[in-house]
Amino acid sequence: MLHFPLVRIAAPLCHPSPEECSEDYAWFRARLADPNLLDGAVGVKVNGAVLLAVPAGGSRRGGYLSVGTVADAVRVWAALRGRSGFPRFRLSLSAHRGTCHTVNWGPRQPREDAERGRHFGYAPSAIDTFLFLHRGFRKGAGRCSSPETDP
């Protein structure tokens, strides 16, 4: 347990049930090469919602959570920092105040789609499906995407 002010600002953690985060669990279960990683998932409560943080392990080298404000990003960072399964923890703040702030763990994610899918531990079939559906669309697209929700 941290013994300095971060403890007071940290977002609450929970062990969400598959029912509580059913859409997230279903999404990850359909894509992860090792769905057993969901057993170590942690829920982070942000503005009344529970965000599912899936740890690194096996072929999954890293992950992230996306939040809407800098304050939420700092609270999530403070909550997950130092937890097992969340190595090399860091914040990535967007140039735009209210969008696309992420809390990342593991090595920096690759830029290339297939490599990024492997970085997040997705099954080859999930990566192939993503590449088929998004071929040519992602190059230079000016949208705020969530790499973990793409493949």
Question: Would you mind describing this structure in some detail?
Answer:
By secondary structure, the protein is an alpha+beta fold. Helices cover 28% and strands 17% of the residues. It has 5 helices and 6 strands, in the order H-E-H-E-E-E-H-E-E-H-H. Strands 1-2-3 form a 3-stranded antiparallel beta sheet, covered by helices on one side. A hairpin with an 8-residue loop joins strand 5 and strand 6. Helix 4 packs antiparallel against helix 5. It is globular, with a radius of gyration of 15 Å. The chain starts with 5 loop residues before the first helix and ends in a 17-residue tail after the last helix. About 7% of the residues have low confidence.
Give the helices and strands, then pairings.
Blueprint: H1 6-9, E1 13-14, H2 22-31, E2 42-46, E3 49-53, E4 63-67, H3 70-80, E5 90-92, E6 101-105, H4 113-119, H5 124-134
Antiparallel strand pairs: 1-2, 2-3, 4-6, 5-6
Helix pairs in contact: 4-5
What would the keywords be for this entry?
151 residues; alpha+beta; three-stranded antiparallel β-sheet; 5 helices; 6 strands; globular
Short description:
With 151 residues, the chain is of the alpha+beta class.
Uncertain runs are 138-147
Which structural class matches the secondary elements? alpha+beta
What letter string, H or E per element, gives the SSE order? HEHEEEHEEHH
Rg over CA atoms, rounded to whole Å, is: 15 Å
* Shape call: globular
Helix content bin: 25-40%
